[in-house]
Design goal:
It is a single chain. By secondary structure, the protein is mainly alpha-helical. About 70% of the residues lie in helices and about 0% in strands. It is built from 24 helices and 2 strands. It has a two-stranded antiparallel sheet with strand order 1-2. Strand 1 and strand 2 form a beta hairpin. Helix 18 packs antiparallel against helix 19 and helix 19 packs antiparallel against helix 20.
């Protein structure tokens, strides 16, 4: 940030310092950014070529940071260009062109970008740079946008007076001219007879221009078609800007359908641009960040682009309270053989969300994939022993530890031992007791071993009823699991036990 101790009055400097501090403390607050931009523009009563260098540098720095943070706001690219023109005028033509090209890269494909393109054309008109004007129009006529037709009319009019070499690529111009020359002499009516007359250079140029005009009309027709395809989606976008309030479901549905459409169309640049537009509005919706990353990952050699998407989502927009984007980012880095970074992402989540069960389970699984079963168990043990992890999370993690021993190691006895040794600590944990009962219910048995397993299941159920501190509704729910077991796998006396429980639990 520029040193706001220079340029402007003491009062202006104090205000700028205050606003800049607010932006640094809350960089996602758009209103704070707007206030800072307005204050920077207003230094010394409004910047112009006579303003102090310090104030000009401060204003430029503010705009550069603001548009790096919010690059798709074409109105502010236009305002930045106006500011530069006020400061430097036409003497800084190349500086302003670079600014406009930066803006074109960020917002040029927007369906409502006509104010930006109008400002760019206005700038070149002030310089009387007719070749530049035509070159800009030659880009714009290919873009599906709201006011495409008026740009084409101007383009078509200017094309009549521009040199042929500006109208088409050299190879296409050569082909057009060659086709005309190969047609042979033209027919000229002389009285009642037609005679063959060799075409002169003016006639050849006239025919070339006619063919070029027809070619341009084909461009117009294609742009018209592409604009019409997108019109329905664009007309449904009611809030194209970022705001902290939630979007209506109809708006979210429209963005999903619009993205579907562009993905099917298959134009990489347009699809990427639409994702970026979508995320201006839907920055707080994980589904669009995840969808963008998945789409980008499907493209060829786009690893860094995918990483950039995850980093922007994780560092700027996706709330830490919803860590799904960050976990997906960790899986991506693991895929790229950056295992330690993947672990660091998990640990960073746990700094803000200590005891977050999903993250801990994910970290344990990551550790198992790259360090073996014992590495995963160590993750669970460390978290269960941690003072940062609350009681309910520890109960769920204990159940996950047992599940790991059962499902991955294949050791039923070790898993059972974990449940048996820890159940007295988690008498009030619904997830723990559901996992414990389900574990015993899911063990395979035979006619010979069912009686032994029945005793184990019954013991867990009796602990639930007699020892646990679960709510009455939870006990009732778990009782139903046990009662189903009695009917499906019980012996001749199971009906009696079932009816007794039915009376006690449901009576």
């Amino acid at each position: 940030m520029a040193d706001y101790g220079f340029g402007g009055s003491d009062e202006e400097n104090a205000e700028l310092k205050k606003l800049n501090t607010e932006v640094l403390e809350d960089p996602d607050n758009f209103e704070n950014w707007e206030k800072l931009v307005r204050a920077a523009e207003s230094l010394e009563g409004g910047l112009n070529r006579n303003s102090s260098p310090q104030s000009i540098v401060a204003a430029r720095d503010t705009y550069d940071r603001f548009l790096a943070k919010f690059p798709l706001l074409f109105g502010y690219w236009k305002k930045y260009a106006d500011l530069e023109f006020s400061i430097a005028g036409t003497e800084a033509a190349e500086l302003l062109r670079r600014l406009f090209e930066r803006g074109a890269t960020c917002v040029g494909l927007d369906f409502l970008a006509h104010p930006f393109w109008d400002k760019y054309l206005e700038f070149e008109e002030r310089l009387e740079a007719h070749d530049k004007i035509f070159a800009i129009l030659n880009r714009v006529v290919h873009i599906p946008m709201h006011q495409y037709a008026r740009y084409f009319e101007r383009y078509r009019h200017l094309a009549q007076h521009r040199p042929l070499q500006e109208l088409l690529p050299p190879d296409m111009l050569v082909r057009f001219r060659s086709d005309i020359e190969n047609d042979g002499p033209s027919n000229v009516q002389a009285g009642s007879q037609q005679t063959k007359v060799e075409r002169g250079e003016l006639e050849i140029e006239r025919e070339v221009r006619t063919r070029i005009d027809n070619f341009h009309l084909e461009i117009f027709s294609r742009t018209q078609t592409e604009t019409t395809k997108r019109w329905t989606y664009e007309s449904e976008i009611k809030r194209p800007y970022f705001h902290v309030t939630e979007l209506d479901e109809s708006q979210l549905v429209n963005w999903r359908k619009y993205l579907d459409f562009e993905e099917v169309e298959g134009d990489y640049i347009r699809t990427q641009f639409l994702y970026e537009r979508c995320l201006v509005t839907c920055a707080y919706y994980d589904e669009f960040w995840l969808r963008y990353a998945r789409w980008m990952l499907a493209q060829t050699e786009k690893e860094e682009e995918v990483r950039n998407i995850y980093q922007r989502a994780s560092m700027l927009y996706a709330p830490i309270a919803r860590p799904s984007v960050r976990l997906q980012y960790a899986y991506f880095e693991e895929m790229c053989d950056r295992v330690e970074l993947a672990k660091d992402i998990h640990h960073a989540i746990l700094v803000s969300l200590p005891g977050h069960v999903e993250t801990i389970v994910s970290l344990a699984n990551l550790s198992r994939r790259h360090g073996g079963l014992e590495a995963a168990i160590e993750v669970y043990k460390a978290q269960i022993e941690s003072t940062q992890c609350d009681h309910h999370a520890k109960a769920a993690l204990c159940a996950e530890w047992a599940r790991l021993l059962w499902r991955i190691k294949g050791s039923v006895e070790e898993a059972r031992k974990v449940f048996q040794e820890h159940h007295r600590y988690y008498l009030d944990s619904r997830p723990f007791w559901i996992a414990y009962l389900s574990f015993e219910l899911e063990q395979p048995t035979s006619a010979e071993t069912e009686s032994v397993q029945y005793k184990r299941i019954k013991q867990v159920y009796e602990d639930i009823r007699r020892k646990s501190q679960l709510s009455a509704s939870t006990v009732k729910d778990l009782s139903h699991y046990y009662m189903v077991y009695l009917l499906e796998r019980g012996t001749k006396t199971a009906a009696k036990e079932y009816m007794t429980l039915d009376r006690e639990i449901n009576g």
